[in-house]
């Protein structure tokens, strides 16, 4: 075989495989873009488990007319300009990969309007080929429609599960994102069926209602509220009481600077904070939000960005561990905890 340069479309499809696994991953990327655009309301519509249609409509900043087609091109992002920006990236996206990747494995349409434009514009891409820009009626904000996911990648399509399973993945994804931003309202519909409806939640009791909707009434009824700040790290959220500890680590929601994480260092630090109050082999449940200077963390470690690299992992670990331990100690002082200095 001779060495050949791959066609552009194929390169995009290969890259898409890295981040776009199923309809839920499409929605994750689209909703994160809406959040990055400052949306206060996000409406998600799906058909046939998202395979036939994934649509996200937001009331965010919109995309300039001249940039609509660019948003579908590879490595086009408005979020970073220099390599130094990577150090302090505060947005969920920054690679400029999601839209072109999705475009290469679906039929996509973008309709958007910025606040200073009297009307909206739309642009589409089919099989990676971008269409002409056209005017379109739209309120300020953006609608992205993704149809027929993987229609041109049969090998990928084969891996999709039943409508029910894919819808389940989507619901869990939307729930995780809804937990990350209380101030934004979310609605998820499958056809005419409303699967999730989360009004904007400013006050703590409203936030607790959203947590109850997503994590369960049981959890919030058995939760301890935590708010702690020390040496550049902030933490707030809800920890389950030790009696609510679970057989599986299945109710663990951790957000760093608004980004959902599945991080081993974080999980083990929180466990350690519970070590004297829960039985061996049981797992804590929690919904926690941590804030830290973005320069203290490298989110560039993995394309799906579920894991991060902390500049000072030890510091973060100790902060988390001590915050949790303190809540347990204050709540159960003198009963279950051994005294420690
Ligand atoms: P990234 O999010 O990594 O920048 P994407 O491919 O997801 O890359 O999006 C490309 C660009 O399109 C973004 O940088 C942003 O400027 C614009 N964009 C995408 N979705 C939206 C949206 N819902 N609202 C406003 N701008 C958007
Ligand atoms: Mg993005």
From TrEMBL:
Sample GO molecular function, one term = ATP hydrolysis activity
Q: Which GO terms describe its cellular component?
A: mismatch repair complex
Keywords for this protein: DNA damage, DNA repair
Record domain DNA mismatch repair protein S5: where? 211-329
GO annotation terms (biological process): mismatch repair
Q: Could you say which protein family the record assigns here?
A: Belongs to the DNA mismatch repair MutL/HexB family.
Role this protein plays? This protein is involved in the repair of mismatches in DNA. It is required for dam-dependent methyl-directed DNA mismatch repair. May act as a 'molecular matchmaker', a protein that promotes the formation of a stable complex between two or more DNA-binding proteins in an ATP-dependent manner without itself being part of a final effector complex.
Name of the protein described by the UniProt record? DNA mismatch repair protein MutL
Species of origin reads: Steroidobacter denitrificans
Q: Which residues of the full protein are shown?
A: 1 to 341 of 616
């Amino acid at each position: 075989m001779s060495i050949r340069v791959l066609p552009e479309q194929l390169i995009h499809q290969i890259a898409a495989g890295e981040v776009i696994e199923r309809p839920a991953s499409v929605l994750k990327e689209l909703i994160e873009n809406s959040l990055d655009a400052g949306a206060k309301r996000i409406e998600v519509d799906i058909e046939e488990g998202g395979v036939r249609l994934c649509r996200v409509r937001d009331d965010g900043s919109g995309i300039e007319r001249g940039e609509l087609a660019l948003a579908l091109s590879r490595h086009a992002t408005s979020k970073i300009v220099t390599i130094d920006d990577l150090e302090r990236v505060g947005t969920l996206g920054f690679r400029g990969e999601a839209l072109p990747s999705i475009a290469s494995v679906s039929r996509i349409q973008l309709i958007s309007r910025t606040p200073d434009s009297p009307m909206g514009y739309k642009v589409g891409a089919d099989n990676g080929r971008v269409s002409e820009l056209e005017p379109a009626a739209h309120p300020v904000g953006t609608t992205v429609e993704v149809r027929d996911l993987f229609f041109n990648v049969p090998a990928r399509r084969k891996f999709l599960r039943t409508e029910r399973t894919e819808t389940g993945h989507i619901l869990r994804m939307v729930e995780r994102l809804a937990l990350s931003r209380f101030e934004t309202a979310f609605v998820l519909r499958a056809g005419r069926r409303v699967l999730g409806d989360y009004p904007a939640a400013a006050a703590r009791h409203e936030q607790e209602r959203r947590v109850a909707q997503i994590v369960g009434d049981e959890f919030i009824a058995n939760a301890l509220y935590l708010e702690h700040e020390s040496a550049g790290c902030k933490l707030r959220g809800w920890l389950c009481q030790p009696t609510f500890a679970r057989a599986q680590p299945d109710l663990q929601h951790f957000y760093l600077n608004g980004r959902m994480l599945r991080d081993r260092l974080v999980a083990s630090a929180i466990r350690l904070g519970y070590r004297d109050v829960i039985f061996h082999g049981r797992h804590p449940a929690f919904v926690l939000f941590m804030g830290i200077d973005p320069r203290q963390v490298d989110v560039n470690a993995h394309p799906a960005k579920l894991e991060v690299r902390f500049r000072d992992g030890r510091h973060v670990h100790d902060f988390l561990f001590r915050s949790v331990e303190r809540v347990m100690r204050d709540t159960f002082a003198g009963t279950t905890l051994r005294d420690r200095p």
